[in-house]
Specification:
Distance between the termini: 40 Å
Number of helices: 13
Helix content: 55-70%
Largest sheet: none
Radius of gyration: 22 Å
Oligomer: single chain
Order of helices and strands: HHHHHHHHHHHHH
Amino acid sequence: MRKMANIQVCLISLAMCFGVSPVLADSLSTQDREEINRLRSTQGHSAEEVNGLLEQVAKAGEKGLPTEPLANKVKEGLAKGVEPKRIDPVLRQLVTHFESAHDVLEESVSRGLVDSSGNRQRALEGLAEALSRGATADEVRELAKTAQGGGAKVSQESLASGAKSLAILKEAKIPSKDGTALVAEGMRQGYRSAELSDLAREIKRRGAEIQQGRMNLQNIKDQVSKGQRADRIFRDSDQGGSGGGDRMDRSGSSDRGGRDDRGGRDDRSGGGRDDRGSRPDRGGSGHGGRER
């Protein structure tokens, strides 16, 4: 037994030396299992109807995927009175997103693009959310590559935040190439997770202006490259004051029409729910109610 434990320690040490995060099993907790069974009983479902869901969660944990958000998906569905057979495909889709997130993250770490330290589970959850909202694995790989600057590696959490912001930009019909370049620049400038999200949401709110050519995406990227954050960038745009060289309308003149976009601050509060992920059971895109 001691020999086997020593072998496992050696394997983990070797994996860390080569920049590869060891995959550790994440078992379904007793508390989650008991809560799922309680909800099952309350809703009048047999153990056989729910065992398949529990098995999916357990197998995902054996692959090193986080089980908590998967268990939360099952619990939420049961609490809402959803039949287990309807929860099954949503859970399978979520597992698939986590598997893709795991593969992208491990590949990026092994290639030296992403730092192996940090909160791996949080990063996986963020990446899975981004994939569920429309970002692709290839786009996330390109983001990890593009975000390199000065030889510094991207953190796992930063990659996940960037991927979620890229998904928001895609929802705003921003071309993937442009969105990747913009988000990567923000990552290079040290944008925190909330700052990346703010940038993406502000651009999404102004999607029509960008599509109509009344706002220039390249100018926004230029300001991001100077270290400016979204609140300053879009405050200047909305105010339309002097200093047109840094303004985002193509002529550099005041764009007073943009004031209408400030009427609803919903995108920064309650109304921004669409940019923070839909409720889990309505499309399989949520991740246990977590907000990153």
